[in-house]
Specification:
mainly beta; Metal Binding Protein, Guanine Nucleotide Exchange Factor, Chain A; globular
């Protein structure tokens, strides 16, 4: 896949903390219930931790009790999906459409009308709180 934002591994390592690099560039996963954005609420947007693209709005977030921030939809055109056959099962990996950063996975067990649950690592995103 080709992305608008491309950097060498060295450039990504300079930009990202080791923990963020492991998630965004090596498709790692943070421990469940450890992420700083798991319980965040309020108005605002969630952006890619690699390139800053807006991925989710706060009103798309819901409590899935799965250990990672979960969303029932994403902003149109911001997520790329690809098959993930790791862990001896088929899942759908989600990537930022702008930089290719690994975000997590999407599942079809969401509780809202979309039926989707975007399960996202806190380390792969930032929360930009809206000013009241």
């Amino acid at each position: 896949m080709e992305f608008d934002v491309t950097k060498t591994d060295e450039e990504w390592r300079e930009q990202l903390s080791p923990e963020r690099y492991a998630i965004l560039r090596e498709a790692g996963t943070e421990a469940p219930f450890s992420g700083s954005l798991l319980s965040v609420d309020g108005r605002g947007v969630f952006t890619c931790g690699g390139c800053g693209q807006v991925l989710f709005r706060a009103e798309q977030k819901f409590e899935a009790h799965c250990g990672w921030p979960s969303f029932d939809a994403c902003e149109p055109g911001t997520i790329v999906e690809r098959p993930d056959h790791s862990l001896s099962r088929e899942r759908t990996e989600i990537l930022c459409s702008r930089c290719g950063g690994h975000l997590g996975h999407v599942f079809d067990d969401g509780p809202t009308d979309t039926g989707l649950r975007y399960c996202v690592n806190s380390l792969s995103i930032d929360f930009d709180r809206a000013e009241d």
